[in-house]
Design goal:
Oligomer: heterodimer
Low-confidence stretches of chain B: none
Structural class of chain A: alpha/beta
Mean pLDDT of chain B: 93
Largest interface: A-B, 27 and 23 residues
Low-confidence stretches of chain A: none
Radius of gyration of chain B: 11 Å
Strand order of the largest sheet of chain B: 1-2-4-3
Number of strands of chain B: 4
Distance between the termini of chain A: 74 Å
Number of helices of chain A: 13
Shape of chain B: globular
CATH topology of chain B: Translation Initiation Factor IF3
Number of domains of chain B: 1
Strand order of the largest sheet of chain A: 6-7-9-8-10-11
Strand content of chain B: 25-35%
CATH architecture of chain B: 2-Layer Sandwich
Strand content of chain A: 15-25%
CATH superfamily of the largest domain in chain A: HUPs
Helix content of chain B: 25-40%
Number of helices of chain B: 2
Radius of gyration of chain A: 25 Å
CATH superfamily of chain B: TusA-like domain
Shape of chain A: elongated
Order of helices and strands of chain A: HEHEHHEHHEHEHHHHEEHEEHEE
């Protein structure tokens, strides 16, 4: 062979392959990336922010949750792996997945299969733009009822356009060989054949790799799998008469106690100092009220055609959730459309608040 | 040298990191950036993100309702 052919041959056989791993912050994606790194592949992480992601910080809005680590688990995972992480805002594009899922919802408003297809599809676009060779996910057959079944895994690969460039290192040996395996970039016998809901194999592998501190296995990573959250989102859509949302809408569904006393409005009651402080950032957007005679929560009012009766009812509820709940009268300051007014109201007795007002 | 300011106030994790990531993408090494935040989680996340990408955290100023993180852009490769 002439020298130029030799160097080209050497380039081909020695070129380090590059993969992007979908990093959720959970154990499976951490392990999947690490398994591929073990085979000498250059791995970078990608994390998609949908707006519905459950994160330590979202919990940390509430002061009582301050024992939870205030960290982004995807960033933390990437640091453990020693890889770069690209965090990508997909809030707007993701709306269509939530609102019109082709494969339907799971037990709540969770469009898991469409979500996985969408994210792998975005990762495919990313590797094409950035010159990477394949995609890694931490999926395990049988682990999730919707998106991680033997019959839906090929659907994700096909509908995302990733096809055989999608590698699931934790269950790869239960699936047909992928392009990186066929090309010899990955040795199949060094991939795994995990199956089912048991977390023991993952925990054993984590131990083998020396990962001791990781996010709770099988923990939900999306608010859309949460029943109460889904009820609040359904309420938002039905009262607005259209299935739309913006980021502020979905953030507000994560905080406070939500009550809908009348069809035309609901109130959001801060449950403690951390939530009150967070909600203060939304005072310009919402009518809001606060007891001034007693300590109490910040209350935001979200509604349309809100009249004096509605404001008075909201003020009575505001009084109920404050320290003045047993007082004869509570003074509530109401800020409505830039106008401040003061109301002296009788706190609404707890037993007069119908259970179905709570969302 | 005046710093480039990124306003990430009233945003929850990971949006302050995303705003920072996108805001510094075209900046030259050595440029100072101030990120204004309210989410207490940023004191962990932005330094973690900086370590990953080779940026230097120069200062973290935690005020009562606001956190200002000053960072110096590294060689972004």
């Amino acid at each position: 062979m002439r020298p130029s052919y030799i160097s080209w041959f050497l380039f081909i056989v020695t070129q380090q392959r590059k993969a992007v791993a979908l990093i959720s912050g959970g154990l499976d994606s951490l392990l999947a990336a690490r398994v591929v790194m073990e085979q000498g592949v250059h791995v970078e992480g990608i994390n998609f922010f949908t707006g519905f992601c459950v994160e330590g910080h979202t919990h940390a809005i509430r002061k009582q949750d301050k024992l939870r680590p205030k960290r982004n688990n995807a960033l933390w995972s990437a640091e453990q792996l020693g890889i770069k992480l690209h965090i990508i805002d997909i809030i707007d594009e993701y709306k269509d997945v939530v609102i019109n899922p082709k494969h339907g919802y799971g037990a709540n408003l969770n469009p898991c299969l469409d979500c996985k297809i969408f994210m792998v599809g975005k990762a495919r676009e990313w590797i094409e733009e950035n010159g990477f060779d394949f995609i890694i996910t931490g999926e395990v057959i049988g682990q999730r009822p919707m998106s991680q079944r033997k019959d839906t895994m090929p659907v994700v690969a096909r509908d995302s356009g990733a096809e055989d460039r999608l590698v699931r290192p934790l269950c790869a040996r239960n699936l047909p060989a992928t392009y990186p395996e066929n090309e010899g970039w990955l040795q199949r016998d060094k991939l795994y054949a995990f199956n089912g809901r048991s977390r023991k194999p993952q925990m054993a592998l984590a131990k083998q790799f020396g990962f001791e501190d990781y996010a709770q296995p099988a923990g939900g990573c999306c608010f859309l799998t949460d029943k109460q959250y889904s009820v609040k989102l359904s309420d938002l859509w039905s009262t607005r008469g259209k299935r739309e949302y913006d980021l502020d809408d979905i953030m507000m569904l994560k905080v406070g106690r939500h009550l809908r006393p009348r069809p035309n409005f609901k109130i959001i009651v801060g449950r403690e100092e951390g939530e009150n402080r967070f909600m203060e950032g939304y005072r310009k957007r919402f009518t809001h009220m606060l007891s001034t005679s007693h300590t109490g929560p910040l209350v935001l009012l979200d509604g349309e055609n809100v009249g004096k009766d509605d404001l008075e009812l909201a003020a009575r509820l505001t009084a109920r959730f404050g320290q003045g709940r047993d007082a004869e009268l509570v003074t509530v300051e109401v800020h409505d459309k830039g106008v401040k007014q003061t109301m002296d109201v009788v706190p609404m007795p707890t037993e007069q608040i119908p259970a179905d007002w709570y969302l | 040298m005046s710093a480039t300011v990124i306003d990430a106030r009233n945003l929850l994790c990971p949006l302050p990191v995303i705003r920072t990531q996108d805001g510094v993408a075209d900046l030259q090494p050595g440029v100072l950036v101030e990120v204004l935040c309210t989410d207490p989680g940023v004191v962990h996340d932005i330094p973690a993100w900086c370590r990953m990408w080779g940026h230097e955290v120069c200062n973290i100023d935690e005020q009562e309702h606001e956190i200002i993180i000053t960072l110096r852009i590294g060689n972004q490769d």
